[in-house]
Amino acid sequence: MQSTPLQLTPAQLIPLHGIGTRHDLPLPFSFVVVGAAAALVLSFVILFFAWRTPRFLTPGGTTLASLTRLVDAAGFRWTLRGLLLAAFIWAGLGLFAGVDQLTNPVFGFVYVWMWVGLVPLSILFGPFWRALNPIRTLHRGLAAVARVDYRHGLLDLGDRVGVWPAALGLFGFAWLELIEPDRTSLAVVRVWALVWLVTLIIGAVIFGETWVGAADPFEAYATSVAQISPWRRVDGELRLVDPLAGLTSWNPPPGSAAVVATLLGSTAYDSFTNNSWWIQTVQNSDISSLLWGTGGLLTMIAIVMITFAAAAAWMHRYRRDRQLSAGDFPRLMAGSVVPIVVGYAIAHYFTLLVVEGQRTAINWSDPMGLGWNVFGSAHMGVNQSVFNHPTAIALVQVVAIVGGHLVGIVAAHEKSLQLVTPRHALAAQVPMLAVMVFYTCSGLLLLFSP
Predict the structure, then answer these.
(1) Is 324 part of a structural domain of the chain?
(2) Up-side HSE of residue 209: CA atoms within 13 Å toward CB?
(3) Domains held by the chain: number
(4) Distance from C-alpha of 323 to C-alpha of 103, rounded to nearest angstrom
(5) What DSSP letter does each residue of 307-324 carry, written as one string?
(6) Closest CA to 122 of 300, 263, 14, 330
(7) Does residue 1 lie within any of the structural domains?
(8) On the chain, which terminus has fewer CB atoms closer than 10 Å, C or N?
């Protein structure tokens, strides 16, 4: 059966939050929202009385010596790097030599495989993107040709930069995906891809490979999500760890709070744009929809950033380490938002990944629109049976959002016990609990907006 062509980008083809509505839930929607909030508060109360001291100061885990030797083997690692680089080159054929049609797989490659697919892959394989990032592979190749050390550049980047450039890049990509009206145009995607490539390569030449970790939005995203993976490298060895232990022992770089706020805020904005009030307001306004969209996206990110930073900074007055500043706490607590980001990603995008991921794989055989069938997938069909189960989809969405917040509360509790004095643990955590309840209720209301 010949597949139907890729119709639109993730922001246009399928509502990014799937097809489940509040009417598909087995309970009244108000019960779901109130129950979710109650579950978070009850979980916090139980945690406060049952979990009084830090448990995960180090990730611990089981050392996997044989797996470490395999992963660190030069032949194995360079084979994987080469395969991923080849995939990007193949996508580049569609981007720069393909036809400007919606059957071009580059759109699905960027908006579905890369953006959405990074979440499950990072959970399953840990920080694989950092190890296999094609930008790092290109830079190392250029450094080898020039006979210079890829680790060092002309200038020292400094530790305070952290991942702030990547946070800015994430905002740029969110703007492209959610607001740019011509995001399915090859010309627009080419510009974005070239800016991404040139910025990272030139920056790596100037500052060394550290720049890639600081500025690549995809690496910042993947590395953040990978903190809840069961795989972790400790003292040079791969270990199988408790994901919560890995998450709460993470020492995030500067700018990590901005990264998770951008990820969460952009997803919230994506839901908000499906609200009938927003649609009517933008359509009836004389102000450009681009300005409305940009303002809305910035507002949602700002709401997340301000509320989270304020709740985290509140803990500063009860700190154990007197050398920590109030500005350190949003960074140190950023890991508690990662499960929420993952929950939102599952709730919003899993149907997109299932269906449009297949369509991209079908079109992958013919990136230039020449009638090729290189991988034998061109004549396959898309299985869309997932849409036959709207109630199941709605339940998955609720469980993902509430579950992500529950794990986030556990992570926040553990991390706060590491940072604040024991006798002030309750006073220190109440604002963060309130913020997470706010995120949960708001997320459900936005996701299932009328």
Answers:
(1) yes
(2) 18
(3) 1
(4) 56
(5) HHHHHHHHGGGGBSSTT-
(6) 263
(7) no
(8) N
Look-up: residue for tokens 């926040």? Answer: 412
Q: Please state, in angstroms and rounded to a whole number, the distance separating the CA atoms of residues 409 and 87.
A: 38
Distance CA 378, CA 366 (A): 7
- Whether residue 253 is contained in a domain is answered as yes
Which tokens in the block code for residue 427?
């006073």
User: 181: buried, middle or exposed (CB in 10 Å: 19+, 13-18, 0-12)?
Assistant: exposed
Residue recorded with tokens 């193949």 = 90
Cα 332 to Cα 165: distance, rounded to the nearest angstrom:
18
Q: Which residues contact 309 (CB under 8 A, 6 or more apart)?
A: 257, 330
Structure tokens at 29: 């929607």
Domain span holding position 262: 22-447
For residue 17, being part of any structural domain is answered with no
Q: Give the E-state strand segments of 196-261 in sequence order.
A: 231-234, 237-240
Strand order across the 237-240 sheet: 62-63, 237-240, 231-234
For the stretch 188-206, what's the b/e string if a residue is b when 16 or more beta carbons lie within 10 angstroms of its beta carbon?
ebeebbeebeebbbebbbe
Structure tokens at 182: 């011509």
Q: What's at 167, amino acid-wise? A: A
CB atoms within 10 A of CB 349: 24
The neighbour count for residue 218, using CB atoms within 10 Å, is 19
d(CA 351, CA 341): 17
Q: Which residue's entry shows tokens 């700002």?
A: 302
* Measured distance CA(222)–CA(226) in Å, rounded: 6
Task: Write out pLDDT tens, residues 308-360.
Answer: 999 999 999 999 999 999 999 999 999 999 999 999 999 888 889 999 999 99
Cα-Cα-Cα-Cα torsion 409, 414, 417, 422, nearest 10 degrees, comes to 80
DSSP character at residue 255: T
* Cβ–Cβ under 8 Å, residues 95 and 106: yes
Per residue in 174-223, pLDDT (tens digit) is 999 999 999 989 999 999 999 999 999 999 999 999 999 999 999 999 99
Question: Is residue 257 over pLDDT 90?
Answer: yes
Over pLDDT 70: what percentage of the chain? 94
Give the residue carrying structure tokens 């109030």.
Answer: 326
pTM of the full predicted structure?
A: 0.91
How many Å apart are CA 259 and CA 170, to the nearest integer? 7
Residue (of 175, 146, 162, 260) closest to 210 by Cα position: 162
Other C-beta atoms lying within 10 Å of the C-beta of residue 445: 16
| Burial group, residue 102, by CB count within 10 angstroms (0-12, 13-18, 19+) | middle
